[in-house]
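During the no-cost extension, the postdoctoral fellow (Dr. R.K.) reprocessed legacy sequence entries with the updated structure-token encoder. One reprocessed record is reproduced below for audit purposes.
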Amino acid sequence: MRSPHCHPLFVPALLCAATLLTARPAAADGRLFDGSASDAGISSQVIRLYEEAAVAAGRYQEARLAAEAQRVKAQRLEERLDRKRQEIDRLRDDLGRIARAQYRGSGALPVTAQFILARSLDDLMRSQRVLTRANLAVAGAIDKSRRAEARLAADEAEAAAARRVLDQRNADMAALKYDVEQKLEQARWQLQGQADASVAAGSCRGAVRLDQASAGLTRQWVPPVEGYVLSARFGSGGAHWASRHSGQDFALPIGSPVRAVGAGRVVRVLCGGAFGIEIVLEHAGGYYTQYAHLASVAVDPGDRVVTGQWIGQSGTSGNSTGPHLHFEVRVTPDYGSAIDPVPWLAARGAPVG
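Re-encoded structure tokens follow.
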């Protein structure tokens, strides 16, 4: 956020997989989404689309892995086909040698002529046996060659069919992934539009409860978000701050669930000012945690929360240069009492990095 709490946000290339756009998407007629859907509706839609996007991404990855496996299989099949082609070439050479040997051995003479020219009956019988074996060898070679060529044609057809099926599957998975991501991106900015309206009015819309499956957490402390990239750190300085940065920033897309790092009580929910939409929790031991630049809140002042409970959704409200969560650990509920949150979390078994 900007002075007195501003920070630069350089969203790394890792977030490109989440299809995070720098410009807000427009509706079909060119208007920005006006946030006409109910708060609960759009917040829940973003969560649902996140789940669908994860499923689509998983299926797309499976298709890519299948494509790689098929590529290896196709390579092996091609090597086998090459060996069969070489085998067929050898069979054809054998046929040529057999035919030439028959010709040189007078295999083409009529039986009557062979009988007349034969020096004895034994010679005649031997020549007939040689001729019979040669004819059988030729017939066997021809049959073997034909069967090899038939197998080769079948294998080539199988390989081509497998490639077509795989190409179609990859195209279907890519189209599904793209469609879900586009819907998610639109819903994100619609949610952010509602947050901006709340900040402009200086008044919160109230808690939007989110359906959260039980996380089954056994730890007492957790990081405030998942799937993040650390950006501005505590105590960092520069032209974007009037004083040192007072928290740790987690870069992640709009609408990502933000969770309570530990059990506690909601002492403050504000919508306005440099921090935009923010929540402050009180924890045992006299510590407080702040979650700022949110797109929505899922708790009200006075609520009790448990570790890992979703308390809101990330955004870019207030003086923010891009979607992220600004997280602070304080010794009072107020700005100016922050301590470095990274070692504080690490000391409680919730390292970030």
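The first strand starts at residue 229 and ends at 230. Strands lie at 229-230, 248-251, 257-259, 264-271, 277-283, 287-297, 304-305, 310-314, 324-330, 338-339. The remaining legacy entries will be reprocessed before the final report is submitted.
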